[in-house]
Amino acid sequence: MFTGVIDSRDVRAQRGSSSQSSGGSSSRHRRTEQDIVIENLQEALRQREEYTRAQNEYNMQQQEYYRQQQEYFANYAAQQQNWIHVSMMLQQLAFRAFSTSYY
């Protein structure tokens, strides 16, 4: 056309092609960032699951320990009650023997 005059159709065509090419690369770049974020989230989730699994195992061990401790003290208390009962019976027998031999 004229020298030094720019055809607006050429400018629009160039803008469209440059925005398409930059848009494509930025969406590829964005997808990579999303992949990184997803990988980080998956790793954080895996670590959290591992921590939860370890915590559950610890809690199970604690429950077993407390159950054994409770069983031990229940047996100990029952044994003490038996000794008290036997001791009282021996005292009663001794008292009866003493009281019958005294009269």
Q: How many distinct beta strands?
A: 0
Strand content: under 5%
* Contiguous helical run count: 1
- From the alpha carbons, calculate the radius of gyration and give it in angstroms: 44 Å
Q: What integer is the average pLDDT?
A: 82
Determine the oligomeric state from the structure: single chain
Task: Give a brief outline of the structure.
This protein has 103 residues and is mostly helical. The protein has one helix and no strands.
What does this structure look like?
With 103 residues, this protein is mainly alpha-helical. It contains 1 helix and no strands.
Keywords, please?
rod-shaped; mainly alpha; 103 residues; single chain; 0% strand
Topology, element by element:
Elements: H1 8-102
